[in-house]
Design a protein that fits this description.
11 strands, about 30% helix
Length: about 260
């Protein structure tokens, strides 16, 4: 890849510093615009549409989305190199779905490696495998969501079935990537022992995969739906309690995986 990659443009909506939940160490999270899914519980609904959006917050205009170059993002994340070095941290690309902008994502991850920074992605990998292969080749840690094993229920709550997700999870694992499976635990969708157990059964068959994280549902971001003139469809849902999460975690660990609650 020649130096032209530094001018590759992408569309982001936020850069969050000092995260400790999205890969090892202290990390900077770059949130990209655009997603293939429409998860009912999404806490970043501004990430779903690829276009730049304008909203009003208490009478003040706010813009969701801006176009940047790889060079501009690298300049920003370089400011916290000391934190990455001391904590074995680095950069994580999130969204939305970073694989919806494959040229920018690949170039930015490559740039991070050129600067000696470790890389991670949060993904559903619900794209064609040629894109997955390009992105994963530049990624040190793949944090992959598997939300449900039932294709019909997956489509009901998310808008698409899970066939490509499961197929690509197996291909990523067979490629030797450092893969962690993550499951957002959503009441009424996938919060039973049988449903989490089914995902754990699948995860343990992925070559080299030993880790599975359970991410409890929360209500953060629900106010964004009003700003975007959208209905939040899970407003009556109560986050799972500690006892329930512990019970679900047992479904993971009894299958020989290293499980944890939270990212």
């Amino acid at each position: 890849m020649n130096n032209d990659y530094l001018q590759q443009k992408g569309r982001i909506f936020d850069i969050q510093k000092y995260s400790i939940h999205d890969g090892p160490g202290i990390r900077t999270i770059v949130f990209l615009k655009g997603c293939l899914f429409r998860c009912r519980w999404c806490c970043n609904p501004e990430s779903q549409e690829s276009e730049i959006q304008q909203v009003m917050i208490d009478g003040v205009p706010k813009t969701y989305g801006r176009d940047v170059t790889v060079s501009e993002v690298l300049d920003e994340i370089e400011k916290d190199r000391a934190f990455y070095r001391r904590s074995s941290g680095g950069i994580t690309l999130s969204g939305g779905e970073c694989m919806c902008q494959p040229d920018f994502t690949e170039a930015l991850l490559h740039g991070c490696h050129e600067h000696g920074l470790t890389t991670a992605i949060e993904t559903t990998a619900a794209v064609t495998y040629d894109i997955v292969e390009r992105v994963v080749a530049e990624t040190d840690y793949v944090l992959m969501d598997i939300k449900h094993m039932n294709p019909a229920k997956h489509k009901e709550f998310i808008g698409k079935d899970n066939a490509r997700v499961l197929e690509n999870a197996m291909k990523i694992a067979r490629s030797g990537a450092n893969l962690t499976i993550r499951v957002p635990v959503i009441p009424t969708f996938n919060d039973t022992p049988a449903e989490i157990g089914a995902i754990a059964e699948f995860a343990k068959e992925l070559p080299g995969v030993t880790r599975m994280h359970l991410l409890p549902y929360h209500r953060l971001g629900t106010d964004k739906y009003n700003r975007l003139s959208r209905d939040y469809l899970l407003k009556e849902i109560v986050p799972p309690g500690e006892e329930q999460m512990t019970r679900l975690l047992e479904e993971v660990t009894k299958r020989g995986l290293t499980g944890q609650i939270g990212g």
